[in-house]
Design brief:
The protein is of the alpha/beta class. It has two domains: 114 residues, Urease, subunit C, domain 1, CATH 2.30.40.10; 295 residues, TIM Barrel (Alpha-Beta Barrel). It has 16 helices and 19 strands. Strands 1, 2, 3, 4, 5, 16, 17, 18 and 19 form a nine-stranded mixed β-sheet that branches. Strands 6-7-8-10 form a four-stranded parallel β-sheet. The chain has a four-stranded parallel β-sheet with strand order 12-13-14-15. β18 and β19 form a beta hairpin. α2 runs parallel beside α3 and α13 crosses α16. The chain is globular. The model has no long low-confidence stretch (mean pLDDT 96). The structure holds guanine and fe (iii) ion. The site of fe (iii) ion has 6 residues, from loops. Belongs to the metallo-dependent hydrolases superfamily. MTA/SAH deaminase family. It comes from Salisediminibacterium beveridgei. Its cofactor is Zn(2+). It holds the Pfam family Amidohydro_1.
C-alpha cells in the first residue's frame, strides 16, 4: 500500500487540544504519518486536493445490526418486544449465508457513503461468518460478533441455541476473525439482552471476555416492558444483574440505557461501562429518551449508534448527531447538548468505547488513517464567519456532502463511488 497526501484542507483534528487547522495530511500504509502545513510529497503518493474541503476523523458508530439492513421498513410503528417477536426475530431466522452477506455489504456501503469508518456490530445467531466476509470485503473497521440467545419466549426455531453451542460458536468466530487485516476486524461477544440469555451464558461470557480481553456488546434498559421481564426473572434491574454476573467493567458496551436507576448509573460510572446512545431508534420504537447530558456530566463514556436500519430507517451518523443534539434542547436548554459534545461522541467517544482511542477517533500522526473528506460548499452551507465548522456539520451537513472516505489507509469511497464494491479495484 502506498502513500496518500491530502493537500490544503480544513482539518478538524479532534486531538487533545481540539485543534482545527488548514494544512496537509500524509498517509503511509494504514497510518497517518504527518499533519501540518506544506508537507513534502513522496514521489509515489496519490494526491487529493483538499482545497475548500473539510477533513474529519471518520465517524464511529458503536451500535449497529448489519444483518437487519435488508429489513428496513419491515416493522414500523411497533414497540420493542412486539417488534422483536413479530418482525425482527422471524426475519433474522430466515437469513441464509447469502442474504446475510448482502445485508452486510449494503449496510457497510451505506455507512461508508455517510462517513462512518468504524462500527460496533451485532449479527444474528447463525451465518455470522458470512457477515464478517462482507465486512472484510467492504473495508470497514468493525468490532462484531454473533448474537447469543439461549432462552426466551416466542423465539423462532432457527434462532434457538443451547448455552454451550452459543459459547463455542462465538469463540470459534473470535479465533477466526479477531485481528484480521492488521486488526481492522475484531470480535466482541454479543449476548442479545438479558431477556434472551441464561445466567450461565452471561457468566461464561464474562469469563471469556476477560480471558481474551475483548469487548462484550449488548442492549440494556431500552424499554419498560423489557425491564419488567428482567425484574420478574432476576429480581434485579438490567445493569445490577449484569454487574452481579461479572460483566460490568470497562469492556462492556451497553446500547440504549434509557431507563436507569440511580444505582445502575453508579455502576456504569464506577465500573467505566461504555454507553451507546441511539436517539433515532429510541424515538422510532417509542422507547424513551436517555439522560445523556447527566451521564456526560458524570464523566461516563457515551458514543452514538444508528442501531439496525429498521429502527430508524438509515445508518447515517449525520441523522444521529442531529437528533442527539435536538432531543435534549426543549427540556434542558439550547446548550445542554451542543454541537461539540455531539461531534465528540461521534468520533473520539466512539474510539474510547472500542478501547481504541490510541488508534482512531482523531487525526494525529501515529493514528490509523480513518477519515472522511467533506465538501460543504453547497449553497445551503455557504460559509458564515460566526458559525463553527463543527456546528455546520452537526446541524446542516448530509451524507451527500461526504466526498471521499478513507479507512485503514485505503480509499474506500472516492468522489462518492464505493471502490471496494467495484470489481476492478
Ligand atoms: N434488544 C434486543 N434485541 C434488539 C434488537 O435487535 N434491536 C434493538 N433495538 N433492541 C434490541
Ligand atoms: Fe440494537
Amino acid at each position: 500500500m502506498g502513500s496518500i497526501l491530502i493537500r490544503n484542507a480544513e482539518i478538524i483534528t479532534m486531538n487533545e487540544k481540539r485543534e482545527q487547522l488548514t494544512g496537509d495530511i500524509l498517509i503511509e500504509g494504514t497510518d497517518i504519518l504527518a499533519v501540518g502545513e506544506h508537507l513534502p510529497c513522496p514521489t509515489d503518493a496519490e494526491v487529493i486536493d483538499g482545497t475548500g474541503r473539510v477533513v474529519i476523523p471518520g465517524f464511529i458508530q458503536t451500535h449497529i445490526h448489519l444483518c437487519q439492513t435488508i429489513f428496513r421498513g419491515r416493522g414500523d410503528d411497533l414497540e420493542l418486544m412486539d417488534w422483536l417477536k413479530g418482525r425482527i426475530w422471524p426475519l433474522e431466522a430466515a437469513h441464509d449465508p447469502e442474504s446475510i452477506y448482502y445485508s452486510a455489504m449494503l449496510g457497510t456501503g451505506e455507512l461508508i457513503q455517510s462517513g462512518t469508518t468504524s462500527i460496533v456490530d451485532m449479527e444474528t445467531v447463525h451465518h455470522t461468518n458470512e457477515a464478517f466476509e462482507g465486512m472484510a470485503r467492504s473495508g470497514i473497521r468493525a468490532l462484531s460478533g454473533k448474537v447469543m440467545m439461549d432462552q426466551g419466549e416466542d423465539v423462532p426455531l432457527p434462532l434457538q441455541e443451547d448455552t454451550m453451542t452459543s459459547l463455542k460458536e462465538s469463540t470459534d468466530l473470535l479465533e477466526k476473525w479477531h485481528g484480521y487485516d492488521q486488526g481492522r476486524l475484531q470480535y466482541a461477544y454479543s449476548p442479545r439482552f438479558v431477556v434472551s440469555c441464561t445466567e450461565n451464558l452471561l457468566k461464561e461470557t464474562a469469563l471469556l471476555s476477560k480471558e481474551y480481553q475483548v469487548r462484550v456488546h449488548t442492549h440494556a434498559a431500552e424499554n419498560q416492558g423489557e425491564i419488567a421481564i428482567v425484574e420478574r426473572d432476576t429480581g434485579m434491574r438490567n445493569v445490577e444483574y449484569l454487574d452481579a454476573l461479572g460483566l460490568a467493567n470497562e469492556r462492556l458496551i451497553l446500547a440504549h440505557c434509557i431507563w436507569l436507576s440511580d444505582r445502575e448509573k453508579e455502576i456504569i460510572r464506577d465500573k467505566q461501562v461504555k454507553v451507546t446512545h441511539c436517539p433515532g431508534s429510541n424515538l422510532k420504537l417509542a422507547s424513551g429518551r436517555a439522560e445523556i447530558p447527566q451521564l456526560l456530566d458524570a464523566h461516563v463514556c457515551v458514543s452514538l449508534g444508528a442501531d439496525g436500519a429498521p429502527c430508524n430507517n438509515n445508518l447515517d451518523m449525520f441523522n444521529e448527531m442531529r437528533l442527539a443534539a435536538l432531543i435534549h434542547k426543549p427540556e434542558n436548554g439550547p446548550t445542554a447538548m451542543d454541537a461539540k459534545k455531539v461531534f465528540q461522541m461521534a468520533t473520539i467517544g466512539g474510539a474510547k468505547a472500542m478501547g481504541m482511542e490510541d488508534q482512531i477517533g482523531s487525526i494525529e500522526p501515529g493514528k490509523k488513517a480513518d477519515l472522511a473528506i467533506l465538501n460543504l460548499n453547497d449553497l445551503h452551507m455557504y460559509p458564515s464567519y460566526d458559525v463553527d465548522t463543527i456546528s455546520r456539520i452537526v446541524y446542516s451537513a448530509t451524507r451527500a456532502d461526504v466526498e471521499t472516505t478513507i479507512i485503514h489507509g485505503k480509499i474506500v469511497m472516492r468522489n462518492r463511488i464505493l471502490t471496494t464494491m467495484n470489481k476492478e479495484e
